[in-house]
Design brief:
Elements: H1 2-8, E1 12-20, H2 27-40, H3 48-58, H4 63-90, H5 93-111, H6 117-146, H7 151-200, E2 211-219, H8 221-230, E3 239-241, E4 244-246, E5 252-254, H9 273-287, H10 296-325, H11 331-358, H12 363-381, H13 387-413, H14 421-450, H15 453-495
Antiparallel strand pairs: 1-2, 3-4, 4-5
Helix pairs in contact: 2-6, 2-7, 3-7, 4-5, 4-6, 4-14, 5-6, 5-7, 6-7, 6-14, 7-11, 7-13, 10-11, 10-13, 10-14, 10-15, 11-13, 12-13, 12-15, 14-15
Length: about 500
Amino acid sequence: MSNRNSMMAVPRVEKRLKLVPPDGGWGWMVVAGAALSNIFNQSMLSLFSLLYGDALEAMGHNTKGAAVVLSAMLFTTNFGGPIAGAIVKLTSTRFVAVLGACSCTLGILLSGFSTNIWHLVITYGILLGLGLGFIQNSSFVAINSYFKLRKSRAVGLANVGTGIGQTIMPHIVRYLLENYGFRGACMLLGSLSLHGIGGTLLIQPVAWHMKKVEEEVIIDEKIHLLEEKHKNIVIDKDHKVNGETIYQNGSRTSSNEKNEKGLVMNGNSAPNQTQQHKSIFRKIYELFDMSLLLSPRFINIIIGTALTVTSIQNFSLIFPFFLQKVASLDKQQTANCMSAVAIADIIGRLTLPVFQDKYRIKARMMIIMTSVWLIVVRQVLAYQTDLGVLLLLSSLYGFGRSMVIVARNIAISENCRMDQVPAAVGLGMLSMGMIVPPAGYFLGWIRDYTGSFIVCISAQNALLVVFLIMWVPDMILIWFEERRRRKKNGDVVEMS
């Protein structure tokens, strides 16, 4: 009897058309546009000392002045992320990307007319920083909307543009300074930055390029009959829902009455200012998707990614000094090691995302694996002085570092809805803006206090250990949850 009932309850299957992201197509043009913008805009961070060093000296400022301008730029970039996410929700990713590219161009161009440090703070620090923050957020959101299965590969290719820019732009800057001077170099670099605007214009709404695919949908006949049975049911009595009275005819009216002038009355003759303020705060809350911060897992993710970025950025700052003061390399040998890092970084951005996509490895797991890789490589590197060994370890470090840079925003977006991605990426950038400066300052203090690069590198690795302690238990929990869900679904299929 039970077998007969189970056979009668077999659900009906229908074929329906579904719109899905193209996972390619015009998406590759979006990737190319993001890469083009990265070549001429994102690479400006690594060019600061080369381009503005002599100008700062002429203004009477030294390393501290450079630190002020760089700090302003990094602060504006990271804290501009949530603003970019909110504007994306109100407008579009294309608008925000173009706005960011225009801000970068304007900042680079006007910086050539700087006569004191505050001019650089406004142009390079604020205008360029805000533009970079807008581009980072909007370009990732655009790529994320176009790709599903090959997302890591697409993000990696877009980030290759930054590596290419960091490789070729220093030579271009040196040539421009030698032949056109500081102001001429800034104006020509501003004109090159215009290519970034052209790249961001390639971003089109993904709705224009969605693919139609046919999928089988299971129709539960019991639910279908239940909906048909109850679709004409009316409410017998008046009742209130969320402050509204619902009558039998389906009409609604607010529980607060309105006077002849249209003002909402709540027992008083004055408008309810508290409700208005609550409405404003509610709109801000929804605009920035602050509900994401109610998830402990999301907070764990953005703090973890900020720790990895802090560790990587701080190592990049001290690496040249380590090579010269500890390993006793000259400037040419130091440049060779740094070039090895850059070349391996580009290779990693091209190859590791392909590996991730092929084996369907989550971005969080890739960051965990490459963080372990970085801890081992850097700890071994800290004790080396031989040029050949340092070149090898520099290459291994650059290869592993690339995956952290590629996967950090993907890891953030994996755990939220598509409409929450702009705000999620913005909050991730905000967490970096809050964690990177104080943590970087603390790591620098360790180096100055101990006088040891080995201790400093060990402290940077300790940040990655803290990151692993935060993420690994959560990943194990997720694994058990998925295993339990698959087992439950398997039992359901077997019973049916």
